[in-house]
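[09:14] KT: can someone run the structure on this one? pasting the chain below
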Amino acid sequence: MINFKNEKAKQVFDAYLQQVEQQIASLPENEKKDIRMEITAHIYDSMRIHDNPDEAVALQNALQKLGKPEEYIKPLVAERQVYQAAKSFNPRRLFIALLKNIGNGIFNTIKYIFFGFLYFLVFIIILTAICKIFYPHYIGFYIEDNGSFYVGYSYNIMAKEKLGYWLSPILFTLGILLYFLITLLLKLFTKAKKALRLK
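[09:31] RB: done, structure tokens below
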């Protein structure tokens, strides 16, 4: 914490930290503490470098250079939320975190759309397993007379279904395994402690 002699500077600093708090509210307390310390240290260093006898002016210059908290904290928070969601393996948290990251730069948008597509494939696999239970004669692993095969819906009564009811547990197992593998991969691609990009 910076000890200000000027009351106006203290009020401006506290107001700025309140804006920071709003942006980091969804993060765990240890990460909030890290971000607060990093921002405070940056402001303090910036005020010292541009030595101005008036604390309020020095602080205003430092904050202006740093920018609005929502501009530089939002991408960081969104990225950390993906990491936290991946650690929990919670599908709902993962979906929300992926959505929050789409639009945070071209690379992040492409990366998280790709992972969203992989999760969509897992959803289709598990949905097919469920549909097999309710529509056993139309969903299956089919082999056509010409040797081609596919998994899914078939209206062709001549196609031969090879796995029967075994298809459901096989697809459930495959879906769950893929879900965990994709989530582990997402965790590897997401930095747990991504540094703030401060000006």
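[09:33] KT: thanks! Residues 1-67 form one domain.
[09:34] RB: yep, looked fine to me
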